[in-house]
Amino acid sequence: MKCGFAMGVLAVRALDEVAPGFDTGRLMFLGAIEEECTGNGTLSASRAGVLADAAVVLEPTDLGILAGGVGVIWLDVRVVGRSAHAESAHMAVNPVDLCGVLTQGLRKWCEQLPQEAPDEAFAELASPYNLNVGGISAGDWHSSVPTDAVLRLRVGFPRSWSPGEAEQRIRAAIADIVARDGRFPSEPVVTAAGFRAAGYALADGHPLSAAMARAHREVHGADPRRFVTGATTDARFYVNDFDVPALCYGPQVYDMHGIDESVELSSIVDGAKVLARFLHHWFERQHRG
Length: 289
Description:
This protein is an alpha+beta fold. Helix content is 38%, strand content 21%.
């Protein structure tokens, strides 16, 4: 996220130098916390009145226009097994094995969601609603079958569902997997933990998207890629909760959330040129209006 912040600072500084007084309206530059785990920073700022007639979120988008994201929820799932010494492991119930059963079943459940809840806005995505096991903890001794295990899950869900509905449906899917398998000594305990993000999408052809595309063309001589993602961004709050159009536009990144995550430094400058033109046109239009 630092690359987007740098891009925004460069754009505003450049405009101050070449077009002083360009911001004939009101320009706000917001740096918010917790974008990666809840979005509570942007939500709190918005509730406090830090809002405008449009918002550009400076996520790294490879200089494309990111216009929407799926719903995302985080859940912790505690699975209880039946512990024993390893020499009688064949008679025990290992909760780690049961976690594998749950993971496999939930992945199949996620795969059928595009058919269960079709959404044309995300039809381009091969796998929009992914299940991710972000962590698992179990056991404390090589020669003991663990008593329990905890799965830390991230689940994508359709835009037509609220986070509450998504949680209810995931709980029902887990209960169905458990009932079908027959090896679970008890029902897993599911706890919400972090993200409860509704899906969102900026309408095709929205003036905000058109203005950003125009600025990109002026700098790069070609239309930017317009796309949606099987993840989420803070733009959802503006679009869903405050009726403020929002999109994401930012630098080029590699291996995001992986080893050797990095940013193409030149793309920060390239993006700043686009953002500066966009801002200048936007305020120029407001002044004429």
